[in-house]
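P.,

For your records, the input lines for the assembly:
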Amino acid sequence: MAGADGDDSLYPIAVLIDELRNEDVQLRLNSIKKLSTIALALGVERTRTELLPFLTDTIYDEDEVLLALAEQLGNFTMLVGGPEYVHCLLPPLESLATVEETVVRDKAVESLRKISQEHSPVDLEVHFEPLVKRLASGDWFTSRTSACGLFSVCYPRVSSTVKAEIRQHFRTLCSDDTPMVRRAAASKLGEFAKVLELDYVKSDIISLFTALASDEQDSVRLLAVEACVSIATLLPQEDLETLVMPTLRQAAEDKSWRVRYMVADKFSELQKAVGPEITKNDLVPAFQNLLKDCEAEVRAAAANKVKEFCENLPEDNREQIIMTHILPCVKELVSDTNQHVKSALASVIMGLSTILGKENTIEHLLPLFLAQLKDECPEVRLNIISNLDCVNEVIGIRQLSQSLLPAIVELAEDAKWRVRLAIIEYMPLLAGQLGVEFFDEKLNTLCMAWLIDHVYAIREAATCNLMKLVEKFGAEWAQNTIVPKVLGMANDPNYLHRMTTLFCINALSEVCGQEITTKQMLPVVVKMASDQVANVRFNVAKSLQKIGPVLDNNALQTQVKPVLEQLKADSDMDVKYFAQEALTVLALA
Amino acid sequence: MVVHGDSSAPLHSRAMSSAATTSPSVDKVDGFSRKSVRKAKQKRSQSSSQFRSQGKPIELTPLPLLKDVPAPEQPELFLKKLQQCCTVFDFMDTLSDLKMKEYKRSTLNELVDYVTVSRGYLTEQAYPEVVKMVSHNIFRTLPPSDSNEFDPEEDEPTLEASWPHLQLVYEFFIRFLESQEFQPSIAKKYIDQKFVLQLLELFDSEDPRERDYLKTVLHRIYGKFLGLRAFIRKQINNIFLRFVYETEHFNGVAELLEILGSIINGFALPLKAEHKQFLVKVLIPLHTVRSLSLFHAQLAYCIVQFLEKDPTLTEPVIRGLLKFWPKTCSQKEVMFLGELEEILDVIEPTQFVKIQEPLFKQISRCVSSPHFQVAERALYYWNNEYIMSLIEENSSVILPIMFANLYRISKEHWNPAIVALVYNVLKAFMEMNSTLFDELTASYKSDRQREKKKEKEREELWKKLEDLELKRGLRSDGIIPT
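Structure tokens returned:
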């Protein structure tokens, strides 16, 4: 860096600082975002002695500016002279870690965590850890909240006396009198536990965990559930029952639905963390209760976990547990009063068939699938249809096809276009599983009807769908079934439908190959060049550009070029533009 | 963490599917129509989860009326009735326990009357029983919010299903607190911090009727229990801070602010540091919340109360508002301008001088806002006599700040009404200080040119800096963080 010092005099700090002080927030923000450039201009020495003190002193600004500053400083190590000097970034970040706005504070903590790794163990104790302590004993809750996120990054690399202090500080924050700080501590509890020695996990963390899990505020209690996963993973199996399970059991039956929701939401992780024995004895009944919870929110969260939970059950009596304990609850959820619960279940229920095997699926699950396929809520039906592949592997889709068809038809005509869009996206999958005959017989008309849907997004998805179908069934099938229908629309009185023909050609030309494109599609496109609607004409130009690469040179020269020349002389500006573009791209100009 | 669902949906989708079976093609409605149109206007009601699925019918043994027994036996019977009323019914099931629900309702009614008119009923044993009965009935986990993004301006609130009982319990509790025989020194054993904390959580109720009662209850408790005051203020602080910085969701902000308005009114002078901190660190940041419109009137009232108490707070308040000035939301900007006018109405001239520069820089930006409601609201300041007098006294400072923007929009603004207002303002300025006005008019062009030149110089500076960055970046590969 020394070689560059000569430039520094060109940029007096005053000018640069003026930029950082500009009255216009936007300009100030821009300058802060280029803080690294300013630092570079100043060189490492002056960045340390002039720029950083200035930044530390002037931290009263709009949160947006502060956010940018907090982010920049996390990447500043090299600009202040490398790891040796990284500690001089601490003062401005310390101030930023105390501001009110959460996003700024979080960013400052993120940057502090990042640069903590660049501190030597000595610097960590001399500079970083005192900062953490100052924050942890700050007056206003914001600094204490920020401190919570910094313990775990310095703990592993400091001496045992300092470690003891850090543990003490964390303990204090866990019983802070503001719930904001307790929430912050609870959310970092798991992370902190991971860096602690096992003895301290048992002696310190467990008591903090128990206290937080029975906090008066449910917002604190639910965060303790998250920590439960990490803590349970750290402890040896024999300690789980006494140290973790009482708290977990209590959380699963908490009076606040938010806490129960959290348990349901983290159920798979919890299951893995506590192991098969506890799962069998404790988690199975807990899961049953969550599936029957009085709040739909909780039931839906639990329903989402049904497949994962069953999958991770110990194999020796998995089937028996599912059949006697889980399936009865699942059966009830199929006719739940809440659509979110049903659709959560529908999105995973098909996965049970691989776990339970062919016979159980046919006997027990199939009736449930069929019931959900007839559900009044489209999302439920859609979720079943979108997961057909799981069942296909086990019992084949034919078992379902009788009920499937009406469900598909109804979704295809649903009043909400997003529902129609969703079912279109599953068409290629369905076509693959149901086979070409079934498709031609039952579904082809639907696919063609979507081409004239009154919503553009549906027409667009429908063209894309055709392309995927041709990829599956081949060009010959295309030539016989869909190409004639698509080309027929070129004479439709509605110009939107005529344009759809062009869009389909764009999508299909490549998969159909040169022969079909040249012999069947190209003549139609050429004819449409004299359409009376300008939008159709410039789409002809675009289509020609698109299908050009599929055609041979002869067709390009004798058919495409004259048409584009003609369009280039069109009276409409856009038509001219796109014709010119096509000529250039196809190198015909 | 926010978890949402839509339990009204079954109703909704049932309506939909029946429409679909009758005329599938007629009813093609897209998902973009406004919520209010889409949603069936149906009063929804909800009850807390913990009372559901009890299964068994509830039996209460009917007791004689209080007025039918001799006076000495009344306190005993009163306690018995309180105990009976601890039983909570499931109101989501409209058919269960009809008789018993009616019995409890009439008992509660009787209790309400009893505490209002009777004398000598409040024995010491009655206090814990009253608090227990109230706690059993009102303290419950509020159910999940019904709609994903509950918009209180657009959506119907979800009403509490058990209101027929709940209302009477609240009514009873208020009469109890207001009763002449009520002794806080005994009650404070039972109405403690934990009680207050649970009470405050209920302010999140979606039912406005419940929040209204809660407001009165909390106000009474604040008035009668001196030992709880600091605690109540602190917990309200916590609720607000969480609302601002964590969830942006809490239904009872307006009600809590209303209580605070009257609390602030009673603050002794000089104000404690705690109260000032509350103003600057809690009330001012409340302005940043998206749903400001729902409690802005109450918030502005609190702010003005503070300034009337202690005018030296004007500067931090106005600086705070300027810091959080809305950048994209015009409705909020109009609210800010309204609040600022309320503040200016009570501002002392010595305070005005301190903040006039940053303040009028912002007003000047508002005046030239392309959104005509914002511009109009700012220009209305010139109709306020007191503000006008302040501007006139300080015209030598304010006029140069305002002039460039006024001059520009008098020629450029798309809205003729704004242009007309601006002409009036310019005229007023001309009358105030014609010499300065003429000078500013004369130098307008050269000032603009100077600004442009400065802008160009800035650009060049940055260009040079970037070249340097490029050069060094090449030289010492990787020094610039990306």
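Two observations worth noting. Residues 1-9 of chain A have pLDDT under 50 and may be disordered. Chain A is about 75% helix and 0% strand.

Regards
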